[in-house]
Design goal:
The structure is a single chain. The chain is mostly helical and 414 residues long. The chain has a single domain, classed as Up-down Bundle (Growth Hormone, Chain: A). Helices cover 78% and strands 0% of the residues. The longest helix has 36 residues. It is globular. The relative contact order is 0.15.
């Protein structure tokens, strides 16, 4: 068996970028490592979700404070994308990935030592910055290495990471000692290992001038992709707003619907949605983008309605089954969106496209969650959840009808 570190590897296959320096990983191993980095960053981002109930009990903050802490990550993520989203197009993917891993290590240290809302907020902000920088650089690097496989990993890895982070953390909360510390101790070790491994990533983007100019905050969605972006916006907004709600208030809602205070219930709820999304991405990756978007919008609307019925009736089976169906819809619409957009960007535009797409997505991920946190304080969790779900189901149904009638882009119809 050939070593994965080789200076004499054969030329890369079609659709792959050969590595350029000695003692670097082959393209295939680099693809896997980039995927693992993305999974780990997103697992770390969902790890605090099952801990919020513990933090609330210890520090006595409100649902609004919870959603602000949660959303601070998403807003920092957006800031990172706006400022640093295109940096790897100029400085190279490897350098930016290494910097993001270093920032994440500091964020995990802050989580580990957190003893107040202020510490938690600082950790979430720094984590958002690190994850935003990593997402654009790793995502672009995956597309450099292999356009089709890279797009698939870009879509699947975040969902798998979110599910793993929520499940592992909730298991540690329920069965292990010192849950607010142990999970972050584990993450410190994992990110330290990834920092060493990332040193051996090949560089897939040549150095280009203009790095300082690229730091000027801007949306950099290529002109060819803008029309398609507007058409997918309603379903994209609905799916990410649902994700933001589940990752912030989902564990608390699961306790109310099921009547169980077991931490694994909240982790299982998050996993049901995001792992359902990962499954749909794997199943729909060969479907035409428009077909995936239509199926995703329909499943999202239907799943939300079933889940809301479960909330109203305190019927656990309906709540979880609706969540799985909505998750399948999220995944199908997500892969349909990515496969609609990626072919519309030139190689030098990929990081900008990925950052622009995630800016739009994470605005939907964060702002509605903060609004929900405010409404919970006034109306209670169940009425807020039902109203929130009705709005998102209506958006998804409207998107389904619009895509069926008008399509996305004629060139991408097949």
């Amino acid at each position: 068996m050939k070593s994965v570190l080789s200076a004499d590897a054969p030329p890369a296959a079609a659709n792959e970028v050969p590595f350029k320096s000695p003692r670097r990983l082959s393209p295939t191993w680099a693809l896997w490592l980039n995927g693992l980095i993305l999974v780990t960053f997103l697992a770390a981002s969902s790890a605090p979700s099952p801990l919020y109930a513990i933090y609330r009990e210890a520090w006595g903050f409100s649902a609004l404070t919870l959603t602000v802490v949660f959303s601070s990550y998403a807003l920092a993520f957006l800031a990172a994308l706006l400022v640093f989203g295109s940096l790897s197009d100029h400085r190279g993917r490897r350098e930016v990935v290494l910097a993001s891993v270093a920032l994440e290590l500091v964020a995990v240290l802050l989580f580990w030592r957190a003893d107040s809302v202020g510490w938690l907020l600082a950790a979430r902000v720094l984590q958002g910055l690190a994850t935003g920088i990593a997402t654009s650089a790793v995502g672009a690097g995956l597309l450099d290495l292999h356009r089709e496989r890279g797009a698939l990993v870009n879509a699947v890895a975040p969902m798998v990471g979110l599910g793993i982070g929520a499940l592992v953390t909730s298991a540690l909360v329920q069965f292990a000692p010192a849950p607010t510390q142990l999970v972050f101790q584990v993450l410190l070790v994992v990110f330290a290992i990834l920092a060493v491994a990332a040193y051996y990533l090949p560089e897939t983007a040549p150095l280009r001038p203009g790095a300082w100019r690229s730091l000027k905050p801007s949306f950099t969605i290529p002109a060819r992709a803008r029309s398609t972006m507007w058409k997918i916006l309603p379903v994209n907004t609905a799916q990410w707003a649902l994700g933001g709600f589940y990752l912030s208030l989902g564990p608390t809602l699961a306790r109310e619907v099921t009547g169980s205070s077991a931490p694994l219930v909240g982790g299982a709820l998050i996993a049901a949605m995001v792992l359902g999304s990962a499954l749909a991405i794997a199943l729909m990756r060969q479907r035409a983008p428009q077909s995936a978007l239509i199926a995703g919008a329909a499943a999202l609307a239907i799943g939300i309605v079933i889940a809301m019925a479960g909330v109203q009736l305190h019927f656990t089976a309906a709540f979880f089954s609706g969540t799985v169906i909505a998750g399948l819809g999220f995944g199908a619409a997500f892969i349909g969106s990515l496969r609609s957009l990626v072919p519309l960007a030139a190689p030098a535009e990929r990081a900008g496209l990925m950052s622009g797409f995630f800016v739009v997505s994470y605005l939907a991920f964060s702002i509605p969650a903060i609004a929900a946190g405010m409404l919970v304080g006034q109306f209670g969790l169940q009425p807020t959840t039902l109203g929130y779900g009705l709005v998102l189901a209506s958006m998804a149904a409207t998107a389904w009808l619009a895509i069926r009638l008008r399509g996305i882009t004629p060139a991408l119809a097949g």
